[in-house]
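Customer escalation, tier 2.

The customer says the design service returned an amino acid string that "doesn't look like it belongs to this structure." They asked us to rerun it and document both sides in this ticket. The original structure tokens are below, unchanged.
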């Protein structure tokens, strides 16, 4: 791991903090947060389709390893879903205010996964790590705005975004350290597990949360706009 790679890994962390600072001075309404979540979902879908899945194929890992890793990732996220639903139910019973525990916890899991994917991308070699770091930064920029609420504003949203930034950087370093020099099967399996986690984020968190308000037709364009933004980054990085 060289200094250049560490600096690139730090970009998503700084972007996440910047998103929190922006959220501290601008509080979007529910409709705007829905649009932001649609955009972030598009970015994550593009990361899966444009970069992550092709990279898994380039690793030429055994098919059984990839299937087993994706299945394990699916089961892990299913268990997380059951756990967060229980936490949400407890919050309703105790009438706790603020950001939903389930969404916040899932967001930290997602950001940790993003970091691990970035680290794995650098371990895989080529421009994969750089492209993933820049592309996922778009998601992290809007993450603070998407999580903002009346109870999580001001210094609280900055603190949450700072913690998210630290999380993505730490897991980038961990992923790169653990996977550098690993076999194609190990790297492919790690990426397949991560793909399941990102798929869960899009379908069960970002879009589900975005649809809690009345959806406008423009939401569809915003979703595709997020996808196109990441794709442009990937194409320009070639």
């Amino acid at each position: 791991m060289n200094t250049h790679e560490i600096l690139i890994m730090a970009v998503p962390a700084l972007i996440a903090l910047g998103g929190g600072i922006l959220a501290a001075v601008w509080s979007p309404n529910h409709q705007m947060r829905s649009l932001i979540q649609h955009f972030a979902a598009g970015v994550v879908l593009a990361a899966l389709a444009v970069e992550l899945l092709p990279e898994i194929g380039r690793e030429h890992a055994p098919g059984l390893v990839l299937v087993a890793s994706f299945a394990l990732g699916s089961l892990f996220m299913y268990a997380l879903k059951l756990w967060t639903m229980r936490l949400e139910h407890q919050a309703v019973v105790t009438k706790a205010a603020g950001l939903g525990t389930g969404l916040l916890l899932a967001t930290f899991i997602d950001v940790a996964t993003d970091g691990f994917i970035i680290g794995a991308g650098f371990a895989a070699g080529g421009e994969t790590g750089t492209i993933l770091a820049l592309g996922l930064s778009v998601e992290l920029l809007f993450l603070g705005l998407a999580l903002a609420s009346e109870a999580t504003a001001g210094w609280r949203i900055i603190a949450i975004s700072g913690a998210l930034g630290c999380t993505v950087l730490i897991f980038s370093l961990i992923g790169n350290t653990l996977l550098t020099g690993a076999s194609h099967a190990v790297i492919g399996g790690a990426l397949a597990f991560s793909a399941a986690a990102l798929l869960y984020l899009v379908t069960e968190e970002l879009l589900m949360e975005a649809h809690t308000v009345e959806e406008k037709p423009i939401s569809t364009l915003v979703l595709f706009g997020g996808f196109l933004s990441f794709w442009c980054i990937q194409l320009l990085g070639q």
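Tier 2 assessment: The sequence is consistent with the input. The chain has one domain: 3-236. The chain has a mean pLDDT of 82. Sent an explanation to the customer and offered a walkthrough call.
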